[in-house]
Amino acid sequence: MQFTCRPYFFNKWATPLLFLPASALFLFSKPATAQSNPPVQQYAHRLFLNPAFTGLLSDYSVTAGHRSQWTGIEDGFSTQWLSGEYRFQKNKNAVGATILNDRSIGVGYSRIQVGATYAYHTKLRQNLDLSAGVQVGYGFLRPGYGSLMFEDQLGGNGQVQQPTAEPLTQERSSYLTLATGFLLFTDQFWAGASVQQLNNPSVGESSGNTVSPLLQVHTGYRFYARNYFDQNSFKEISFTPTVSYMQQSGYKRVDGAMYMVVTPFTIGLSHSYLPTFKNNAPASTISGIAGVTHKGLKLGYGYRHSLSGNAISIGPTHEISLSFEKVDYLQIFKRLGADKNYNRIACPAF
C-alpha cells in the first residue's frame, strides 16, 4: 500500500520533494500520520481487497494492473499488480496468487510482495452463498531517503546548508504477512470483510517498525434494468451502488461508488472521504472508472483526483488494468441441482 503523509512538512520551505520522500520513509511506522491509498479499480484487484474473492467471478483468470500516483511530482510512486486465480470444478475450493511491486525511482524506495490465497465456497441457502478465504504473503522492503530534508539542515533563510544528524540507515527487511476474510452473497447482493496484516508484521530492526492490522468492509447491490443469457454469454443493463470502509490503527476511509454496465461497457464514479485529526481538514477524492469486456478480455482505466485544498499539488492518479477470464455461464444459469455447484458474485469487474 502507499501512504500519503499529511502534516509533516507544511511550512514555508515545504516542496513536493519534501512531501514525497517523507511518505516513503514513514510508510510502515506507527507514528506516521498517513492514510492508505487503495486501487482506483478495487474490484479489478479484488484478491488484494479480500482473499475470499478468489474464484468467485470466473473459473480462472489472470489480471495485471499499473498505477501512477502523484503524477504532479517528478518520480512519483508507481504500483504494479499481477494476480491469478483458479476454481476447482469438482469441489468448493479455489486458489490464487498475487504479486505487488511498489516503488519510487526518485526516492529509492521499493517493495515487492508475493502471496498465495485460498478460498472455500459453500451454499447456505438456495440463493445465499458463503466464501471464506486466507492469504499468506512474503515481502521485501527497501526504504528510500532521496531528496529528504530535515529541520536541522535548514538555515534561517530556508537554504540547505549542512548534512542532517539523523541516523539514516539503508536497512532492507523482509516480512511475513497474513490476511483473512469472508463474503456473503446472492445473485445481486454481497457483503464482506477482510483483515490484512493480521500478524502485525515487523518490517525493520526497530521494535516500533510494525504494521497495524488493516480492516476493510465492503458491500453492494446490483439492480438489473435488463439481463439475459445468450450463446454462453451474459448481457445486461445494470446499476450497482457500492460502499466500502477501511480502518488501520486510527486512520479511516469511506468510499461510495456507482457503476453502470451496458454490455460490454462499464462506467463508474466514486467519492472517497478521509477524516483526519484535530485541526486538520478532512480530505476527499473523486474517481472515474471506464472499462470494456470482449470475449473474456477486460480493459479498464481509473482516474483519481483530490478535492482537498492542500498547499502542495501532488497531481492525479492514473490506473490501468488488463485481465483475461474464463466463465462457464451455462453452468451458472442453465444447470440445476448437483451440476450447479456455485453462484457468481455480482460485484463489479473494475
Describe this structure in words.
This protein is mostly beta strands and 350 residues long. Helices cover 5% and strands 49% of the residues. The protein is built from three helices and 15 strands. The protein has a 14-stranded antiparallel β-barrel. A hairpin with a 4-residue loop joins strand 3 (93-104) and strand 4 (109-125). The longest helix has 10 residues, at 16-25. The radius of gyration is 22 Å and the shape is globular. The two termini are 18 Å apart. 35% of the residues are buried. The model is unreliable at 1-35 (pLDDT under 50). InterPro entries: PorP/SprF_Bacteroidetes (IPR019861). It comes from Rufibacter roseus. This is PorP/SprF family type IX secretion system membrane protein.
List keywords for this structure.
350 residues, mainly beta, 49% strand, globular, PorP/SprF_Bacteroidetes
Average pLDDT number: 80
**Contiguous uncertain segments of 5+ residues:** 1-35
Largest sheet: 14 strands, antiparallel, barrel
| Tally of separate helices | 3
Strand elements, count: 15
Helix percentage range:
under 10%
Strand content: over 45%
What is the terminal separation in angstroms? 18 Å
Note the overall shape.
globular
Please provide the ordered H/E string of secondary-structure elements: HHEEEEEEEEEEEEEEEH
